[in-house]
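Collaboration report, partner site 2.

Our partner group contributed sequences for two proteins of shared interest, and the home lab folded both. The records are reproduced in the order in which they were received, starting with the first partner submission.
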Amino acid sequence: MSTPSYLSRDRHGAYVFRITIPKSLRPLFAGKLCIRKSLTTYNRREAARLAIALAAEYLNGFEMLVENKEIKAVKESLKKIEGQMFRNGSRLKAKRVIKDELFEKLVARLRSACPEAGIAQIEQTVKNEDLDIVLEVLADLTGDSELANHFDREISKLNKEIKELELTESILQHNYSEARLVRQDDARSPNLNSISSTNESVFLSKPITQIVETYLEHKRGNNAKLGRGVVNGLDHSIKDFIFICGDLKANEVTPEIARTFRDDLLRMPKYRSKGELKGCTKNDLLSKSWDESQLLTPTTVAERLRYITEMFKWLVRVYGLARNPFIELKVASAARGYNVFSIVDLNHLYASELYSPDSTYFQSKRTNASYWWLCLVAMYTGARAGELNQLELKRDIKSENGIHYFHLQEDSVSVKSKAAFRRVPIHSKLIEIGILEYFEKLKKAGMKRVFEGFALRDVASKSMSAYFQRYRERNFPAWIGDKKVLHSFRTTFINQVLHGKSKIATHHLQEVVGHEPSQLKSTSDYVRGAPIERLKEVVEAVTFDGLDIDHLKGGWKALMFK
């Protein structure tokens, strides 16, 4: 592919922006023929994006100088932006009113179904605005899970629309501020040599809350499929930084401030915006002594720092920030260490109330077939919860050479890494229990996803993980201290293959579970694309000797479409 116009390379290989000055304007630039500016990047795609933006800026400046239209253009731009801000603000206000009314309807419906003795508890739950708990209680009290799902869908839709309008509002405010800065200086002719440096200086003096919106626009421009997990991760990181350090300007953040942020974050409790901790100040939280289990994990803190570090790298590269204050920060991270399920654990699980047709839990209107299949599919595939919850019947259930498999494709699911796009054969034990028949019944009923019983939110794994956590607390509280969670099924699957009787090549196991080559100590010449028969051998190596689940055959049928 040819190099885009305005781009060249310097002797070190970095891209340089170059634009020719119109002949009539050269006297204003000391006779120069062109303007050159280093883009400080070796990435062609990034350089092309920056060059296009700079070219538009300089060409517009040339035109203003030639035709003397700068003042008029700025005034028209301000007027246009003001109109856009008014219309966007009206829509945002209307959406917030609709959300408040919908939430009031939800609360009214919940209180009407609640026994008198539980009203105080319900009011406290609503006050804390924990939507998941509110919807769960509503479904339990009314026996109508569809009503709860209706409220969930409507509120989630409104939250998404409000988030988009708030983003638009922030961008418009940024554009309006830029236009006003130009208008204040409109009596003078623009010096095009200083256009970029002036904008960079102004941008770096903005608060981080304004900078982050521009950064997200940059990320979306380079990645049309930017996942909600990335957006939410950056949002949590910025909120934590502002809570601890304040909404500082980007050029005010020093390495000392960055270290303070890291050290204080390691002393912060989880869920500081919920329950009794809601409304506490930074000093309130730091003054208390917390158990290690109550604190944010080193892994979470490292993740927060990673998001902020990447944003400041972008500021250094694109806007000329002097240095990245977060670049050398490290967090001593402890391994997450999810424990595996023993055969005794699994036998107890599949003898518990979810798998006992005579139990009140099984017969509850809220219990559905998705709940019933979750642990079994996770155990025999090693897939992540977020991957399972996004599986669709027509798109992701396939067959090759008589082998049925889940096809996790780039267009199918939002996954952790590129290695997670893969084929996972369906274990013979799942087929024996009746999973293929389950798929057919879902298709005939017009269902789209394999696990329709779980809500699919911004974080795909959230509803599944929350359900398993509640079931664990209800039936197996000892597992909490043992660190046995839904993700432990994945750890158990990998351990079964690694320590089983069958000798499975490590890179084939990697392909099935979606690990990067660096994980599980793979060789450097690792290549994907093993035949489906070879992947089937990996899955079938999971045998769970001593596990008795023969009684589960067809047990899911009583839970279909309750």
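Second partner submission, folded after the first:
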Amino acid sequence: MVSSHQVVIGSALLGIAGVGAFLMYRGKTLSIFYRWRSKGILYGHKKENKIITSGKEWEKVAEAFKRECQQLGVVGFDCEWVQVKGHRRPVALLQLASSQGTCLLIRLALIKEELPESLTSFLKDTRVLKLGVGCNDDSIYLERDHSIQVQGCVDLRFIVQEQQKKSDTVKDANKGYDGLGLKSLAQTFLGITLNKDWRVRGSDWEAPVLTARQVSYAAADALCGAHICSKLVEQYLEYPWWMPFLPPSVLAAHIAAGIHQMCEGFRDVPFKKNKDKFLEPKPSVNITNKRCKSTYPADSLRKTPLYHNCQLRAPDNQLLCTCDPKKARWYVRKGLGTLVSEEPLVVKLNFEPVARPQEEGADGHFYIQVRENICVVCGKKDSYIRKNVVPSEYRKHFPGVLKHHVSHDVVLLCTRCHQLSNIRDSEMRFKLAEEFDAPIGTKGVHKVRIDPTIKSVKGAALILMAKRDALPENRVEELENLVRNYCNVDVITDDILKECSCLDPKIPNEDYVPHGFKVYQEYSKIGLIKMETRWRQHFLDSMKPSYMPNWWSVFHNHKKLRYKMSITSPKSPKWEDYHICLFGTEGVCDVEYKPKSDHISHSPETDLRNTDTQAEKLDYNPLLNAYDSSDEDECEESGMEYDDENLEEDCNVCNDIGDIGPDIAFSSRNQDLQESICEA
């Protein structure tokens, strides 16, 4: 019979052994316990598919579904549509799946009424991340087809690549881009094989009733997005020993914070294929006051602000315009202005300007306001890109009087809005192509064509030079015959092969006319300002910007062009430019020529202090102009860098300074200074 004393000793020994084993294997034990606790939060215990065909059906399930998604702040996201002869029809099905297993199949093709506000606001809520593969493209299609804005999209391929960089635990790491499709990711992380049968993928998603295979296919795609994220966050998170013992709500909050931290920097960033190296999202822009001197593509993220809001003031301290700090300091360096303050940078001119902002009305006021470096559509304050409202493929053909020193049509857009704007600009381009018979990218309108004979001979020569010994004899003979027949020789020498390897198969197309130039030619017949106005109105109608600068107008600068034409002699080459801009080559001019002296006496628009002073100022062509970022655009189009030399060259040759704001010129009191600068 065992005594109670022995029982106590045995129990103590067992307890000590258990504690020792736990301490020895505590890492693995806690990991297993943590995964068991988090499994119910990350994956749920149910799987339910609900088909939504009306706003009322959405409202019935909306609250419960949003609660499930808000627990972790994620939702699986995907879209389906029908392809007809290679052309995509509008998005027919929107799939949303919570990590708990609920999947909503919203049949947009069958919903005729306006979508409920609770659904559109849920899709715009950046606190709930929309996860999937290619989800940014899907969001663009939804915006384009149904005016549904989706924000907070994260492409899972970004996260997978980050995990591949940090560890070698991801399977198929060496498969490169081929291993980043949804089917491959589901196999790698979830151990399941998705049904990607083309007969289901390419089926009729607009049918009145979806088949069981369609429902299963669509639900699985969305649900995999949420569950792959759950697997990734398990690898990403580091947890202390006490984490598995927290209450479920606190544990869920910890996991949700980890997911959002893991996805930080990848929200609404398009994924681009790059087989050579991982694609890293572009970081948010750190705004500094230093202007980057090198040029960069127009569609890249800005490294510096577009608007510096430095001030140029008249001798009586009236604000003339805002400009770049480089231009403001140029006035000081040349002795044409005095530095008033560094922060903000203010320069007072030492000479009387040729005009004041009030004289140009709204056009002048546009250039003296403080402008923010934000997206003009959504108001986002970082990761912005410069956008030309009138695309450069048309604008680069404009006469200088219409395009030089005009910053009015340069706005800032965030990456997502810029991408969306480009898509909608494409729609306008195709309209113009059809309207003016100016095809885009079709056969017969290429700048060059490839001669197939020369191409094959060049390829044969390159192969013979590099791999002759490794090729079968019959293949060598075939390639040599190509070279012999082309060169009309019996014996092929190394010099002949070398000469053939340098052949250029490209043949210039003499009949080629670029789309942009063809459209420009057509509008130059009726007035270029009509094309300018059309593109400005298109931007307002297609993007509906909420943060446009004050005094921005579709008719900006048109009144001023008429004034400048009225004081320009019809014998001047610039008069022809004004005529093309305002009336076109086929239009009738209704602007009466008035010499400057007459215009000064009778124009109601020029309300200066006295006629003598104005006449005195107009005796001299403007020499200086306020800087604006469109100067940088013109330099980029011509392949130059914008620097002091270009800036001084502008000052010496430009006679129409006021195109970007108030005219600035020397009065006769500064004639000596003017002559010295001209000599420089």
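Feedback sent to the partner group on the second submission included the following. The two ends are 116 Å apart (CA to CA). The longest strand covers residues 74-80.
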